[in-house]
Amino acid sequence: MIVTLAGGVGGARMAAGLATISDGKIAVIVNTADDFEHLGLAISPDLDTVMYTLAGLENVEQGWGLCDETWSFMSALEGLGGETWFRLGDRDMATHVERSRMLAAGVSLASVTRHLCAALGVRADVLAMSDGKVRTVVQTSDGELAFQDYFVRRRCEPRLLSVRFAGADRAQALPEALARLAAPDLEAIVIAPSNPYVSVAPILAVPGYVAALDAREVPCVAVSPIVGGKAIKGPAAKMMTELGVDASVVGIAQHYAGLIDGLVIDEADRALVPSIERLGIRAHVCDAIMRDREGRARLAAETLGFARELGRRGDWRGPCRAS
Amino acid sequence: MIVTLAGGVGGARMAAGLATISDGKIAVIVNTADDFEHLGLAISPDLDTVMYTLAGLENVEQGWGLCDETWSFMSALEGLGGETWFRLGDRDMATHVERSRMLAAGVSLASVTRHLCAALGVRADVLAMSDGKVRTVVQTSDGELAFQDYFVRRRCEPRLLSVRFAGADRAQALPEALARLAAPDLEAIVIAPSNPYVSVAPILAVPGYVAALDAREVPCVAVSPIVGGKAIKGPAAKMMTELGVDASVVGIAQHYAGLIDGLVIDEADRALVPSIERLGIRAHVCDAIMRDREGRARLAAETLGFARELGRRGDWRGPCRAS
């Protein structure tokens, strides 16, 4: 069994790769701090991206939403003068409507997610990080903004000053997720190549997860979302720069130092291995870009192989145990 | 100015016909007792049918919903195991989502309707009968059922025992609607060929409307939804029979006796003119079936001509004033 912490597209692809090579025996702890209420619907962008990708139904070109999507709803909504900055496809709407209906009926987000995943034939365990309400709020050059307002409506254009996770202190880690992190058959923990600041950080901000990672008895490896100083997808590099952080695999290693045992980086960053290992983090160099489904499985296999090697060599736990 | 009381398809077509011949100078008071909450959305079937038909966007083949509709949402919802007995098209969903959002924000149903009609280019005034919540409940051989459960889910199959309009006693007629019924430029009141028991009766059950009709200074004519003992559309005849009422134009005349001055009936029912006029209601015989858009305008012109003739001859108000 493998547990992965994941956010948007990079996390979803990593999860899909790991599911492929492990016959679905993975649990994915998913960021829900991007969730928001829109048009009266409860929308969970990261849960949906992970779920759709694991179901093989993701829209590859678009990077979010469902394949074979139609847009009649959005076009009619535009005709009615409704809000269309957050694009909702017709098929995708079924997920939001059904989720909203179940939540309103008192079903927990974790149970709703289980139900939706079962309906879509997803075999991996997709776990909302918390049933509590955590919301990413960003301080920017345009003031404080709700995450989707910053991320989608304003396309990350305002300069990022800081990020906070409203409600995280009062939220509780999902008990099933903590159980998976402590399970005897756990083999490795993988931090997916998701945005460290707005996809992985909210998960770690929920009380319970850092302690669970500290108490782990298996290696924890991250896969860098930065390759050659650029984000593979999304605004991670821009955000790191604006936050005054080195937008490189070294910046990623610094960010995760004390938490992870190893970092998977791309060939393009081979020269930075010494800088990473100086932080007490082992580096594994490979092709770290998932270009297609085969690429996902290949990177997942590289990552899992690396974690297993760290485990075999006892070459892990160093950083977080040494302190 | 003409005011018409309307429910579903028959009412919508009559309203569209009247709008055509009067250059949009009509007000349509629409039944909202069919409204219901479904999948977390506020759905107003009769308002939508009237609005879509007046906008020229109605789905003629289907008899409800929008033309050029797509069904991706419904098909995806089915895949998720959601409730699909009430069919919601993708474009239609925009209406329900936008209405639900506005109602949740505290906007009145009347204002929401005005907004949606303006967006769709509807020039006629479409007036929800009340901003209050009135709900049609039917007693049937299968027990008490909410209207859409009876009408759509069970296709009117259970035997109808009685109909009540929950909340009608506490509801208030829409002030704009009462103002229209008392306006100095009002020329006629038309009760559309809607189902008398579940489309027109709920409007009349809201305190204010019967008094407004009684106080009218113009003729009030109804158009029969029954032709040759059969409903033109829908279950009106079946319902009348189950309620122990004569499923004929005479049954319609008896139902509206004391309320209307004239009844428009089809050629097929010419022989029943004496039975209608015996009730103190003038009868006008013509082709009373609206087969197409031309048919709507023709029937609307026949109806308005009939009302004007009653007005000219002073041949009205007899029944309701005599008592």
- Name the chain pair whose interface involves the most residues: A-B, 32 and 32 residues
CATH architecture label of chain A? 3-Layer(aba) Sandwich
| Spatial strand arrangement across the major sheet of chain A | 5-2-1-9-10-13-14
**What is the number of independent domains of chain A?**
1
Oligomerization category of the chains in this entry: homodimer
Unreliable sequence segments of chain A? 318-323
- Gyration radius of chain A (Cα, Å) is 19 Å
Let me know the average pLDDT of chain A.
Answer: 95
% residues in beta strands of chain A = 15-25%
* CATH-defined superfamily of chain A: CofD-like domains
Q: Can you count the helices of chain A?
A: 14
Shape of chain A: globular
CATH class of chain A: Alpha Beta
Terminal CA distance of chain A: 28 Å
Q: How many β-strand runs of chain A?
A: 14
Reading the helices and strands of chain A in chain order gives: EHEEEHHHHEEEHEHEHHEEEHHEHEHH
Could you give a short account of the major beta sheet of chain A? Answer: 7 strands, parallel
* Class inferred from helices and paired strands of chain A: alpha/beta
The helicity of chain A comes to: 40-55%
